[in-house]
């Protein structure tokens, strides 16, 4: 991949990309697309059923990433105007209606200024669905199971509000706690968890698989250990609650990225 910023760089960049592709993949085909510098990564949560109904549950901001992997997610995004939010969500609904999409999924975009660009559709529940549940009150996992069983979104079993009645309440933040060592280029760590103490309280949610004392952390699976989510009426309150919750977490026996997450949450740009 080559970034070309001026017309003078185009020919050289094209030839280099073509040569590298041929050497790496045995295929010299090249395609050109617009380069978007430092965009926001915004995804819209959508749920559709077999009866032609489809709604969105607004968006999540997944721009805080490390090596193109999401680390911190926020819902709703604090970077979008109401007008831009409406345009993005409407576009997501139009796309999913066009393909007659069924069940939970996300439509992902890059956002730069007032413009946005389609990335992909993820036809599944995302890791960060928790914060959408916290701000909308919709159980996305249960809903997808009922939809798969043939239920209608607006029947009594699911009881999804009409789109005009779906609103968000406050702000939610999710941090992904992983068994990685931030001081060693985020190398995954393994071993037995000798001590585990989690945070808690009103507006704090923990989704943990191997998050318990005595758990064996092996090198054979993803390093995600716990999803820590906080919810409050303002973004500032949710941010403060996340900072406190991260400090209260005690995990011994394996290294985690908690110190890194604390630094991220305290960064002035957050």
UniProtKB/TrEMBL annotation:
Its EC number is 6.4.1.1, 6.4.1.7. It comes from the Bacteria. One of its GO terms (biological process) is gluconeogenesis. Residues 1-270 form the Biotin carboxylation domain. GO terms for molecular function: 2-oxoglutarate carboxylase activity; ATP binding; metal ion binding; pyruvate carboxylase activity. Residues 27-149 form the ATP-grasp domain. One of its GO terms (cellular component) is cytoplasm. SMART domains: Biotin_carb_C (SM00878). PANTHER family: PYRUVATE CARBOXYLASE, PYRUVATE CARBOXYLASE, MITOCHONDRIAL. This is Pyruvate carboxylase. The lineage of its organism: Bacteria, Bacillati, Bacillota, Bacilli, Bacillales. The gene is cfiB_3.
């Amino acid at each position: 991949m080559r970034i070309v910023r001026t017309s003078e760089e185009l020919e050289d960049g094209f030839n280099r990309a073509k040569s590298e592709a041929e050497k790496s993949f045995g295929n010299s085909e090249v395609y050109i697309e617009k380069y978007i510098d430092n965009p926001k990564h915004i995804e819209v949560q959508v749920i559709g059923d077999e009866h032609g109904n489809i709604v969105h549950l607004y968006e999540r901001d997944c721009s805080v990433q490390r090596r193109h992997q999401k680390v911190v997610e926020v819902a709703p995004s604090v970077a979008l105007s109401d007008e831009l939010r409406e345009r993005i969500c409407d576009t997501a609904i139009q796309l999913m209606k066009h393909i007659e999409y069924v069940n939970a999924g996300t439509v992902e975009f890059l956002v730069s200024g007032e413009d946005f660009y389609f990335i992909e559709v993820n036809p599944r529940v995302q890791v960060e669905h928790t914060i959408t549940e916290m701000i909308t009150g919709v159980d996305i996992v249960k809903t997808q199971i009922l939809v798969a069983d043939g239920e209608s979104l607006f029947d009594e079993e699911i009881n999804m509000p009409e789109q005009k009645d779906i609103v968000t309440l406050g702000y939610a933040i999710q941090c992904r706690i992983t068994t990685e060592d931030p001081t060693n280029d985020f190398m995954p760590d393994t071993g037995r968890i000798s001590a585990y103490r989690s945070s808690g309280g009103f507006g704090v949610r923990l989704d943990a698989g191997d998050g318990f004392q005595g758990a064996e952390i092996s090198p054979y699976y993803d390093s995600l250990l716990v999803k820590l989510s906080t919810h409050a009426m303002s973004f500032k309150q949710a941010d403060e609650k996340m900072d406190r919750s991260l400090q209260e977490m005690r995990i011994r026996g394996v290294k985690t990225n908690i110190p890194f997450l604390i630094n991220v949450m305290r960064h002035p740009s957050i």
